[in-house]
Amino acid sequence: xxxxxxxxxxxxxxxxxxxxxxxxxxxxxxxxxxxxxxxxxxxxxxxxxxxxxxxxxxxxxxxxxxxxxxxxxxxxxxxxxxxxxxxxxxxxxxxxxxxxxxxxxxxxxxxxxxxxxxxxxxxxxxxxxxxxxxxxxxxxxxxxxxxxxxxxxxxxxxxxxxxxxxxxxxxxxxxxxxxxxxxxxxxxxxxxxxxxxxxxxxxxxxxxxxxxxxxxxxxxxxxxxxxxxxxxxxxxxxxxxxxxxxxxxxxxxxxxxxxxxxxxxxxx
Length: 268
Fold this sequence. Notes:
CATH class: Alpha Beta
Order of helices and strands: EHEHHEEEHEEHEHEEEEEEEE
Largest sheet: 6 strands, mixed
Shape: globular
Number of domains: 1
Structural class: alpha/beta
Radius of gyration: 18 Å
CATH topology: Nitrilase/N-carbamoyl-D-aminoacid amidohydrolase
Mean pLDDT: 97
Strand content: 25-35%
Helix content: 10-25%
């Protein structure tokens, strides 16, 4: 089955949740039936990224699935008949997590908490303990990782071993490496990835400006980049993918990526 997968790359304004949600709504509203099946939004797409205090984190974090952002995306997914993966700061009790959710026409499906925290995320967020997750949907088996998780090969490999066919990858990338690395991550696991990054600059902390690199992309199971965004433009781009092709791990008649693995020989 072929599906239309896409990302919306844009420049969220820190703390302007209403404006950021409205921007997503305005981008998705014109999409017609059959033009989009699965959409991935950036990490912290509604909140902004560069926190400078725990009070800001507390103010902008939400519970899942009862929080506003999850409800907004669930309603949008239902209205448009699509699946949406997106990142948001989550609050549970006294802990805060860098999380991502998956929603669909049926409502909230599940959430994932970021395993590998990047830079000053470590000052405010608790490392995720959900483990990597994969969900069965009408669009195929969708796995989730968040931004810096890509830097660890174990992330994609774990999702692949769990049966993921498509990996949703909400991101706020500031390092330059990910766009070049994702074809290898997809090739070595033979699955699709949708990396949704943001654009713009946040310089809310003196002497520490964060410039987001854009370059969101959809990468195929064979390492091909199907569509790629610019460094700085806000754009919703879509590519046709076939998730079932990710089930085939054969490279040639004698080599299968997973059957040929020798975990007993791998150093820990």
